[in-house]
Amino acid sequence: MDIKEVSILGENAGRHWYYASKGRALLQLLKGLKVETVLDIGAGSGIFSRQLLDAGICRRAVCVDPAYRAEGVERHNDREIRFAPSPDQGPADIILMMDVLEHVDDDVALLRRSTARLRPHDQVVITVPAFQFLWSGHDEFLEHRRRYTRRQVEAVVRAAGLEPVKSGYFFGLLFPVAAIQRLFNKWRRKSTPGPAKSALSTQGKAVNTILIAVHDLERRVMFPFNRLAGLTVFCLARRAG
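RE: above sequence
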């Protein structure tokens, strides 16, 4: 979760439909996996690491983000979660890069450097925002460099020396409405410029519950095999043996 959005969604961010649904998609992608350590690069608030710890997928999480001012250790459900501004050289069984690559100029170099510690068949989960034509003030607010198609993500993965295992779009059922809204807002900003801001906002309990249910349906029926459209690209990759 981007640090910038913590102040918007507050302490209940984990229950917000976007992060709850995205976390459930992540858990589905890693279903049945049990590992020792997850390295969460660009972890922000550490929301996805906490979800993996809650699900018992890992016994320990290391969250790395340059926004952290110092190292620290917490206990989450009696399991260790460590926060550090830069990664150490210890082993990691899974690396998370959730909405990270779009923030840097050289995404291939960052991915190659971040996954250099992976052993053969260890895995990395990557998510990025989808489709450049959906570029909006939301991207500018979060200081993105680009948005991606599924094929572009797979090309970055291969260029970094990894092998794509699964990839697909998520938030596909929301895509038509979001696309119309963002294209309209882009047109409106041209005629009436204003400050860039996040597209996420807090929702009422009923709306939040409905949106989670909608994306639960999508996740069960389409994920991760949606090759057509969505707001996010998921890619599971591994170090080739």
